[in-house]
Amino acid sequence: MPFEANVPPGPLGDKWTRYRGTMNLVAPNNKRRIEIIVVGTGLAGASAAATLGELGYKVKCFTFHDSPRRAHSIAAQGGINAAKNYQNDGDSVYRLFYDTIKGGDYRSRESNVHRLAEVSRNIIDQAVAQGVPFAREYGGLLANRSFGGVQVSRTFYARGQTGQQLLLGAYQSLSRQISKGSVKMYNRHEMLDLVIEDGKARGIIARNLLTGKLERHAAHCVVLGTGGYGNVFYLSTNAMNSNGTAAWRAVRRGAYMANPCFTQIHPTCIPQSGDYQSKLTLMSESLRNDGRVWVPKNQEDAQAVREGKKTANDIPEGERDYYLERRYPAFGNLVPRDVASRAAKVACDEGLGVAPTGLAVFLDFESAIMRYGRSEANSQGMENASDAKVRELGEKVVEEKYGNLFEMYEKITGDNPYKTPMKIYPAVHYTMGGLWVDYNLQTNIPGLFSIGECNFSDHGANRLGASALMQGLADGYFVLPYTIGQFLSNEIRTPEIEPTGEAFDKAEQDVKNRLDQLMNIKGDQSVESFHRRLGKIMWDYCGMSRNADGLQKARKMIRELREEFYKDAFIPGDAMDFNPELEKAHRVADFMELGELMIVDALDRNESCGGHFREEYQTEEGEALRDDENYAYVSAWEYNGWEEEPKLHKEDLVFENVELKTRSYK
Amino acid sequence: MKLTLKIWRQKNANTKGRFETYQVEASPDMSFLEMLDVLNESLIAKKEEPVAFEHDCREGICGTCNMVINGEPHGPMQGTTTCQLHMRHFKDGDTIVIEPFRASAFPIIKDLAIDRDSFDRIIQAGGYISINTGQAQDGNAIPIEKQTAAEAFDAAACIGCGACVAACPNASAMLFVSAKVSHLAHMPQGKVEAKRRAQAMVKQMDEEGFGMCSNITACEAECPKEISVEHIARLNREYLSSTVGSEVKV
């Protein structure tokens, strides 16, 4: 199978333009005959399906949700980056490219990232034209804010619901194509296998989740926009049903999984409160524009806060450690996510945590409220306003910016963040790893494409805030619709693919056998309980920091857990029926294999970079210590089942335009 | 806290449903759905079928969860989805009645899970701006007044959960339809098709079997995103002006 990055020649800034101008096209009369399967309806899947439909292809689009609008992109809060330079603050395509490469700790492909930065500008235009109600200034122009790891304001937003508004824009475009008949939508269908005929991806086996019936769907090619696999950790900010099964089934059919150990732990989430907890809730990174992170300077104060004897407001300014501002003066509270998360862990490990569990730090808006209040008072001509009045005005400004986030925090915790600081702790949020793809977003299986979080391509070892929405929409609207033509232009003589061949027979039988196997375990323990245990292993040993001993131990534990699962899991109900427990079982079974591969990958990478922090490899100051000599490569894993050792393929990362430097935010 | 739950159980759309009573032990910090997780775990431990309920993001934005709790869609708290409702708002010893959203346009799939495809079809009928990828002009080419953008956002915040339908004695979908019509009609980009859109979406709403609006405004009271009935007034205006003296016909 081909394992070539297929990066076009030419200077970095011209590659995409030149390539786009010379790539093969499919004529309209042929597009009408060519079928494309798109799995997933998040930002990447919905935008791709809509655009391919507009271009005239026959698209079949699948989601396991009851509606395309439910995809987890909907929950993205803070914003979307674009190199518009509307703020005149020195932004440019090159700067967005550079920030993303650096933010990713030099573990992504230059050419892909530069293309992403180029098309970022088109995304904003497209979304505005779709009616996305972005935040605006009084003059009617688009507003921006700043996110972690950058020194310009290039993030566009719609309150704290940017993902929702962008997804609804894509969903509406998709709905338009559905109404025209160019896209056929299959709600409540879960892809359970990929079908490969003559070495090319030609279809999927999907389970109708309402009836349990297995269906065969054929097409000239298959696009996966099925998101990330953060739920391998059980507790994450991902939606409950987000899963890695579609991508993992492609891996089981030969697709390579790239950098699976690169997981993003988001620094600002609401801490876990009990064992029953089913998910963690993110508090947008945008809050770090105005919130200051701190812990008490001494352990006695921290303990008093943990025991409820003191509150944050009882601790005087001089006794607080604003540790991000102290350690990273250049970026302060807006350091990238991996750096902020690790710093929070260090503080809590030193016994300075402020929640009863010991696992939380403060995110404090006091100074922002007073600062905004004073400026508001001045602009209203109240130079001598009382502190109470200033606070009142300031709270209004903060409410306008972050109101829905503050409300969400209060609903979950019962605390009012306008009055006392939020308590936050890092949680699993995003997976940079994913299916390996070339410059065309094609996997090593011809005809199988992967877009959005589902692929590995743009974020290296750490993703910058507000870049997930950018990448999902870049891939779906502006990259894949072009690059897919490189494959499809060679398929114009291929007649309609019939879902009747041997490969379809076998794939369907394989799925049936797997489902039977699960239904026949008939043990005693719930699938949920296995998922919880898997998550705990992953979090303890393959989470915010990792070491070789722990990883080896975890690998053994997962293998034992898997064995126990196939002996003792219990799935109620019937396979030929609406059965959420069976859906879960299939996903958890796949998570166990994927989890082991993440551990294998983390063991292989004897360096620290971005979200992958190996305790053995750190500087004296506790910063990540990269090893460019030996590890400047993408790990693309071939996985042939539980019994065989996964096989590593390396794609060397060549940096022609940026100099590899130690990442510093100091 | 010890709770008694009366939950609607129904095998599928073709069988009759009934209330079943369960006891569950919960903690005040749990979310409502986590309390149901605990119940389901205990049912699975007894080899009984868990209660089917749908949920996904559990942070109040995907619009999947749908329960009528003690007679109110999404329960007693204002502006709160079921998944964001926490048990601290209930008391030890409470009896809680849990049903699915009920409307003939939302057929029951199983227990508390319902089919809301009708909402998708309404959006497909016209809830979009007709712009192909790549046709857009620069994002700052048309300034939009801050207040107008904010009003459009308020309408666009709809999560498509269907609480408005469940709250309405007529099972009308007017708040849902008006939110989209109003969102797009606020934006200059959406004005071009505003007339056609209003007619097409209302027509589809009627075909799906949703009832008429009789200004009860329970929809606004129960909407977890607190979408205002002012948008219904706007829909009525848009609809009226699109029919009376207009050449646009759908």
Can you put this structure into words, describing what you see?
The complex is a heterodimer of chains A (666) and B (250). Chain A has 666 residues and is α/β, with parallel strands linked by helices. Among the domains of chain A are: 265-428, Succinate dehydrogenase/fumarate reductase flavoprotein, catalytic domain (Flavocytochrome C3, Chain A, domain 1); 502-651, Up-down Bundle (Methane Monooxygenase Hydroxylase, Chain G, domain 1). Chain A contains 18 helices and 21 strands. In chain A, the strands form six sheets. Chain A has a five-stranded parallel sheet. A five-stranded antiparallel sheet of chain A has the order 11-15-14-12-13. The longest helix of chain A is centred in the middle third of the chain and has 27 residues, at 387-413. Chain A starts with 11 loop residues before the first helix and ends in a 14-residue tail after the last strand. The model of chain A has no long low-confidence stretch (mean pLDDT 96). Chain B is α+β, with helices and mostly antiparallel strands and 250 residues long. Chain B has helices spanning 32-45, 117-126, 146-156, 163-167, 174-186, 188-191, 194-207, 218-222, 230-243; strands at residues 2-9, 18-25, 68-69, 72-73, 95-99, 108-110, 113-114. The radius of gyration of chain B is 20 Å and the shape is elongated. Chains A and B meet through α3, α5, α6, α12 and α13 of A and α1, α2, α3 and α5 of B.
Q: Notable features of this structure?
A:
heterodimer; A: 666 residues; alpha/beta; Flavocytochrome C3, Chain A, domain 1; Methane Monooxygenase Hydroxylase, Chain G, domain 1; five-stranded parallel β-sheet; five-stranded antiparallel β-sheet; 21 strands; 39% helix; B: 250 residues; alpha+beta; Ubiquitin-like (UB roll); Fumarate Reductase Iron-sulfur Protein, Chain B, domain 2; 2 domains; five-stranded mixed β-sheet; two-stranded antiparallel sheet; 9 helices; 7 strands; 36% helix; 12% strand
